[in-house]
Amino acid sequence: MNKDFLESEMTHIPMTFRARAGKTVIVLPDGSRGVVRRGATIDNSMVKLLVRGFRWQRMLYEGKFTSIEDLSAAEKINPSYVSRVLRLSYLSPKIVEAILDGKGPARLTMKDLMEPFPIDWQKQAAHFGFN
Questions:
Q1: Where do the domains of the chain lie?
Q2: pTM
């Protein structure tokens, strides 16, 4: 086969590859998954991060710890990390439910969740691509 034939038969498909739940997922330009399998793909690491945030928030609320510093010392984790994870307890219930059900956007990663995000639930949906 000659090179001209190969080039004329090539198709360009814009996509990216993201690690999700320990697997590589194809993400199309619109943010959807390139290959959709039956059932949800639950990202257990992301679920654990959410659970940890809500657990820590409950511990502070119930008075088991009086500050983030006390909590971080007890957990032997950097206070900055504890603060970032605690923010997750302010996520919209719809976003939390989607993550727990494995129905979040393919582009959403744990790194994205750890970055600052709007407190308003509608703005969160737009920020994380849940529209």
A1: 41-131
A2: 0.68
